[in-house]
Amino acid sequence: MASSDKTNIEAPARTAPARPTKAAPAAPPNPTMAIVAPAVGWLIPGAGHLIQKRWIRGVLLMVSVCMMFFLGLAMQGKVYRPNTGDLLDMLGFIGDLGAGALYIVTRGLDAGQGSIARAVADYGTKFIVVAGLLNVIAAVDAHHIAIGKKR
Amino acid sequence: MNQGLSLSHFAAALLFSLFASIVFGVTQRDNPRDMMKYGAYCFSLFVGGVIVAGWAMWLLRH
Q1: What is the rounded CA–CA span in Å between residue A92 and residue A54?
Q2: A with B: how many residue pairs have Cβ under 8 Å apart?
Q3: What is the CB neighbour count within 10 angstroms for residue B33?
């Protein structure tokens, strides 16, 4: 009898510390940041991590995505425009759009015309598309950090 | 006439592998040690894949 009372008293004490860690993913620590971080991260590569004080990760992502994008442009890669033509062209546009401000500024400057005469230019086109796709992954990661799913 | 940056296929593949591996490492793992290990793993797979595909194409041609 005495031992069963003892276990009843101890039981809540054992489960109590586990409660906050289980509840953490369900309740976002900062709901505003959960929206702002991926949006900023999409617009400026790596900025979603930088505003959450993940300095090294942010800089690494910014350098990687920007370098891929600029190398693609330097190789005379093509920047896709909004189109309703070929399916691959539409997918290319969606991939390019992932680069955020880099895409918008490049379109504004009318750069990225592409050169069909050079094989390297085709690599450049792929570099630009993949830079956009990697930036989307980085923005999603910034969202995961903001909701507490990732440290 | 602007010729743009001229890289070999292998150099372009190395640069692609490097930057993609950095992003994969940073985004797919939680702590810095695991990030570095996963980034290096992805880089080795990318470069290994390029070398294997290169030899496969050479064998097909010969």
Answers
A1: 30
A2: 71
A3: 9
Average pLDDT of adjacent 10-residue blocks, chain A of 151 residues: 46 50 54 94 97 96 97 94 88 95 95 82 94 97 94 85
- Length of chain B measured in residues: 62
pTM for this prediction: 0.83
* DSSP, res A95: H
Task: Round to whole Å and give the CA distance between A102 and A128.
Answer: 10
Separation between Cα atoms, residue A131 and residue A93, nearest integer Å = 12
Residue A114's nearest CA partner among A97, A129, A136 is: A129
**What is the separation of C-alpha B14 from the centre of its chain, rounded to a whole number of angstroms?**
5
Using alpha carbons only, what angle is made at residue A14 by residues A9 and A17, rounded to the nearest 5 degrees? 130
For residue B17, which amino acid is it? S
Instruction: Name the residue among B5, B22, B27 with its Cβ closest to that of A74.
Output: B5
Query: Where are the domains positioned within chain A?
Result: 27-146
Strand partners, A113: A78
Helices and strands, number each (H, E), in chain A: 8, 0
Reported ipTM: the value is 0.90
How far is it, in rounded angstroms, from Cα A3 to Cα A1? 5
Q: Provide the residue ranges of all domains of chain B, joining segments of one domain with +.
A: 10-61
Please answer whether residues A95 and A60 qualify as being in contact, where contact means their C-beta atoms are separated by less than 8 angstroms.
no
Mutation to test the B interface, candidates A67, A71, A123, A135, most B Cβ within 10 Å: A123
CB contact under 8 A, B22 and A64: yes
